[in-house]
Amino acid sequence: MPRGRCRLSAEMRATRLFFQSLSPCCCVLLVAQIICFEGDKQHQATQQLISALLFPMEKLESLKSAVASLSEISENEKNGFINLVSRYLSGEAQHIEWSKIQTPTDEVVVPYDTLSTSPDDPAETKKLLDKLVVLKLNGGLGTTMGCTGPKSVIEVRNGLTFLDLIVLQIENLNSKYGCNVPLVLMNSFNTHDETLKIVDKYSNSNIVIHTFNQSQYPRLVVEDFTPLPSKGQHGKEGWYPPGHGDVFASLMNSGKLDAFLSQGKEYVFVANSDNLGAIVDLKILNHLIQNKNEYCMEVTPKTLADVKGGTLISYEGKVQLLEIAQVPDEHVNEFKSIEKFKIFNTNNLWLNLSAVKRLVEADALKMEIIPNPKEVNGIKVLQLETAAGAAIKFFDHAIGINVPRSRFLPVKATSDLLLVQSDLYTLVDGFVIRNKARANPTNPSIELGPEFKKVGNFLSRFKSIPSIIELDSLKVTGDVWFGAGIVLKGKVTIAAKLGVKLEIPDGAVIENKEINGPEDI
Predict the structure, then answer these.
(1) 239-240 and 295-301 as β-strands: parallel, antiparallel, unpaired?
(2) How far does the signal peptide extend, from start to end residue (predicted)?
(3) Consecutive 10-residue runs of the chain (521 residues): their mean pLDDT?
(4) What pLDDT does 29 receive?
(5) How far is Cα 299 from Cα 348, in angstroms, rounded to an integer?
(6) Cα–Cα distances in Å, from 317 out to 25, 356, 392, 398, 437?
(7) How far is Cα of residue 281 from the mean position of the Cα atoms in its chain?
(8) From CA 221, how far away is CA 310, in angstroms rounded?
């Protein structure tokens, strides 16, 4: 058969596949554009359309070839990456019709206070807990806080790290009820090696710790759509972890999911390792088992600090996550309103393991793709990522639970570290407990200048962390140093003058003041 005819046949097959992927409305519009032309112009328009349709496919074929030669990643990772890129190139995206959005009922987003109490009988509690696995997302580095290595090894309080606290919490559960709740850490290639060294120190603990790596995907060079490692960038800068939406496939590919199912485990509680409020909750676990819910997202009431957070909506008979990136421009202010959209996603998720297995095997988890442009050594690259919360719409009997704010206590910056190291919290058996002496249900607003950004600098600027039980807000800028035994109350602003070191003396009590120099204290 002549080569030209083979090429045309391939073009027509590809074009047919593309048209099959389009909605009938889109097909009609494209064809209507072509038949507006006559003769040669119509032929030229047809060829241009075919070229436009084939261009993404040509890019994909070239990319497949390049990815196949990458020895650093597994076949599962290669297939997962190509699948993600293919979906991205197809332009698939859910269009939200704003008028169809409904506020979820209490059956869909269940108020925490309405949950049944957990069993009083310790033997029944043990049965519940023996069905549970705890998984912490441990792929992030502490670089934004000036630390090297996994963020989970930053010291939070009393010399204990995030990971120390997580291990203490689960150890306490296992000892108290005689159960066997395992801890699973989903690492990235950035955190894997160091995490394995750290985990070794828990070898004598009353807890089994498992680790696995989430997928490692090559960054895409924007200019020619080739993998960055193919350009000679074989170090860590050539790769990226594709977001926590990868937890489902990676848990399956690691073999851990099947192993847990064989041990009689039914649910996995997934949370960020830096969320100190994300502890095992027996009321939630009991509710999910009793009601056979395959997926649960913990949400909590929005404050003005959370207006960009994703929220749960009812949409065409399903519960789903609505992110700000999906919101039409004309409705962004409405989305940010805490009057209409009153809750946001904490990223504390409870998943039925059998359901995860079913959906991964069926390749049914097609979460919205998040394009994340970056620049590496002067090269513009693209990372394609997904979020675990977006998977809620694919599970049966999926719900949200509107939980107390205490279950959302993330430490993303040193301002958060100030909160959890202060007298606003105490530490009991690895659990960070809020001080009941504070009357205000919300935490004070803390804003620290760049001098405090790195953990080392932050710690060196405080002889001891001030008392903030009665603090409403604190803003600190400039070269400020805090003595010991300081008490802050009400609204406090401390701004050192440029080039001047400002020391707050030991034992100072500052209430509703703006301080620019020693004379203001």
Answers:
(1) unpaired
(2) none
(3) 38 46 47 50 49 61 90 94 91 81 94 94 96 96 86 92 96 96 96 93 94 96 91 86 96 97 98 97 98 98 86 92 88 87 95 98 94 92 95 97 96 96 94 94 94 95 97 97 97 95 96 92 83
(4) 46
(5) 8
(6) 24, 21, 13, 12, 44
(7) 20
(8) 29
Asked whether 162 and 156 are in contact (CB, 8 A), the reply is yes
CB 491 within 8 A of CB 510: no
Q: Report which of 408, 485, 487, 498 is spatially closest to residue 449, judged by C-alpha positions.
A: 498
Distance CA 407, CA 346 (A): 8
In which region does residue 225 sit, left (phi positive, over 0), alpha (psi from -120 to 50) or beta (all else)? Answer: left
* Element holding 270 (H helix, E strand): strand 267-272
Phi-psi region of 393 (alpha: psi -120 to 50; beta: other; left: phi over 0): alpha
User: What is the DSSP code string of 348-381?
Assistant: EEEEEHHHHHHHHHTT---PPPEEEEEEETTEEE
Within a 13 Å sphere around the CA of 255, how many CA atoms are in the beta-carbon half? 2
**CA torsion sign, 333 to 335 to 341 to 345?**
negative
pLDDT at residue number 44: 53
The DSSP output letter for 480 is E
Name residue 396's amino acid.
D
For residues 504 and 496, the answer to whether their CB atoms sit within 8 Å is: no
Give the three-class secondary structure for 182. Answer: coil
369-213-89 Cα angle (round to 5) = 20
Instruction: Give the chain's length.
Output: 521
- What letter does residue 435 receive in the DSSP assignment? -
Q: What is the pLDDT of residue 34?
A: 46
For residue 234, the model assigns a pLDDT of 73
DSSP lists the bridge partners of residue 373 as 382
Tell which residue, 348, 341, 352, 343, has the closest CA to residue 388.
348
Kindly tell me the burial class for residue 79, based on how many C-beta atoms sit within 10 Å of its own C-beta (0-12, 13-18, 19 or more). middle
